[in-house]
Design goal:
single chain; mainly alpha; 2 domains; two-stranded parallel sheet; 4 strands
Length: about 180
Amino acid sequence: MERPLLRAVEHPGPLPAVLLIDEIDRADEHFEAFLLELLAERAITVPEIGTIVAAVPPVAILTSNRTRDLHDALKRRCLYHWIDHPDMARVVAIVRERVPGATEALATQASAATGRLRTLDLQKAPGTAEVIDWVQALHVLGLPRLDVSAAASTLGSVLKYREDRDIAVGAGLAWVVGD
C-alpha cells in the first residue's frame, strides 16, 4: 500500500518531497531502521516489490520528545534544531484560540505560572499543551483567576507526575501562581 514514505521516494522532483515524521522516538525500531535506509541509501526496500531508489531524495524533518534514545546511525544523519517554549504573549494567543471564552487574564496567569513551574526540577516540564489543559480546567470549573485554591484543585491538569506536583507544592503554590 502506497504510504507517505513510498510517495516521497517516488516523488519525481524537481524539488524534493518534504517528509514530516512527528515524534520519531515513539516509532518502533523496525520503522527507525526503515527510515535509516531511506536517509542513508536514498532508497527503501519493500519485500514484495524490491528496492526503490529515490530520483530526488526527500528531505525528512523529524521531531522528538526524547521519550527514548534514537540509534546513533540515525542521529548521525540529522541536523539538529532545538525549539524553545514560545514567549508568554504567543502562549496566551494560542490558549485563547484553543479555549474559547477564556479571558486574557486567565490565560496570562496560567502561562506565567507555567513559566515558573518550568524553573523547577521536574520530570516533565509543562509545555503549551499543558497550559491549554490548565486553562480549560479552570474555565470549565468556572474559576475566573488562578489563585492558590484554584491551583491546588487543578495542578494535575498541568503536571502529569505526582512527584512533580509534590515539588510544585513544596516550592509554594503562592509562588507558582505569582501571589
